[in-house]
């Protein structure tokens, strides 16, 4: 039996570090950083980490936030911004020495959320 993506990403500790790095990358990203200028970054990092925990096979009740459509409604996120988010995630995965297979699984899952985020 294959180990869960949650475990392969390092459990809560590993995923929290990856999520923190992703959000830091977003805040520093020239294309999307402005969207993070006036937000509570620790709160966003917590939401990202708990979302990743739940989405990768960790505790099913870790994420208590909004669904993706509700969280992004009215933001009118462009396809280019969405791709910048994926690029930021890939950078964070690389920084945390996540293997190629796991990177592909994470990016596949994130891309699957595109219709719930772009242009809503």
UniProtKB/TrEMBL annotation:
<dbReference type="GO" id="GO:0019825">
    <property type="term" value="F:oxygen binding"/>
</dbReference>
<dbReference type="Pfam" id="PF01152">
    <property type="entry name" value="Bac_globin"/>
</dbReference>
<dbReference type="InterPro" id="IPR012292">
    <property type="entry name" value="Globin/Proto"/>
</dbReference>
<keyword id="KW-0408">Iron</keyword>
<dbReference type="GO" id="GO:0046872">
    <property type="term" value="F:metal ion binding"/>
</dbReference>
<dbReference type="InterPro" id="IPR009050">
    <property type="entry name" value="Globin-like_sf"/>
</dbReference>
<keyword id="KW-0813">Transport</keyword>
<dbReference type="GO" id="GO:0020037">
    <property type="term" value="F:heme binding"/>
</dbReference>
<dbReference type="InterPro" id="IPR001486">
    <property type="entry name" value="Hemoglobin_trunc"/>
</dbReference>
<feature type="binding site" description="distal binding residue">
    <location>
        <position position="72"/>
    </location>
    <ligand>
        <name>heme</name>
    </ligand>
</feature>
<protein>
    <submittedName>
        <fullName>Globin</fullName>
    </submittedName>
</protein>
<keyword id="KW-0349">Heme</keyword>
<keyword id="KW-0479">Metal-binding</keyword>
């Amino acid at each position: 039996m294959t180990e869960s993506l949650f475990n392969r990403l390092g459990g809560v500790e590993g995923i929290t570090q990856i999520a923190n790095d992703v959000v830091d990358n977003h805040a520093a990203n020239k294309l999307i950083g402005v969207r993070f200028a006036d937000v509570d970054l620790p709160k966003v990092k917590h939401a990202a980490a708990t979302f990743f925990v739940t989405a990768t096979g960790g505790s099913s009740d870790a994420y208590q936030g909004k669904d993706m459509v509700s969280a992004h409604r009215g933001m009118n996120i462009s396809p280019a911004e969405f791709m910048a988010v994926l690029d930021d995630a890939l950078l964070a995965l690389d920084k945390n020495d996540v293997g190629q297979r796991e990177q592909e699984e994470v990016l596949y899952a994130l891309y699957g959320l595109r219709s719930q985020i772009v242009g809503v």
